[in-house]
Structure prediction request, 261 residues.
Amino acid sequence: MQIQAKDLTFLVLISCVIFLIAPVAIIIYVILYNHRKKKHKEEKEWLKTTFENELLKSQMEVREQTMQTIAGNLHDNIGQLLSLTIVTLSTINPNDPSRVAKKVESATQLAKRATNELRQLSRLIHGQELISLGLAEAIKFELDYLRAAMLHEITFDSNYVPKGERSDKEIILFRTFQEVLNNIIRHAEATAINVAIKQEEPYLTLLIKDNGNGFVEEEVLKEKKGMGLFNIQKRAALISGDVSIITVPGSGTEVKIRIPY
Prediction:
């Protein structure tokens, strides 16, 4: 069966189109591939820069929070202890020897308590060194200061084992913990706070519960104070983690942060 000239012309045209389209398609594919590759590289650079900025911000916030804690402790604890010591010493009457020893002993005990508080503060000043000991140690130290105010019943449980060196993820996670804790203290009106760290390879989970007022998450996110929740979610996302918030008005709040670790 002979091929007609018309069909032959059509086949030649089709072949030419295919040979023309193929190089164009390859060129377009290479351009798109290079574009995606460049975009992916830019995204990686952006993520790296964002992470470094957030890390620096978190470090500064940890220091600021530390300074606030120190200022409050100096005023509320050490200041009061030293004031009581001065008052006790000023009431000593040399003409009443029977009570001198008792008042001197009382002033000595107050001075010792103030000294212990100062030792605790000296550790707190080195907040970054505290983080290097491990996330659990830093959180425990923070909770011990809160417990000293005797306004909350606090429990802490952890099976976390430090890796031997400070993780940048830990700094961001610790700052996130501080933000949750601040929200509880300022807004929740809670009397009990439960904190737990669960290390289950390949994840590390931080769980914070309170028995406070609770809230409606959607409503809070619409308000200015919702920035706290937004920051918590943003920080978790930056270290490839996720945040789960379970809250009911009048029944407390549970915040669970899980990160690859």
In short: The CA atoms of residues 70 and 117 lie 10 Å apart. Helices lie at 5-90, 97-125, 127-132, 135-148, 168-188, 217-222, 227-238. The longest strand covers residues 192-200.
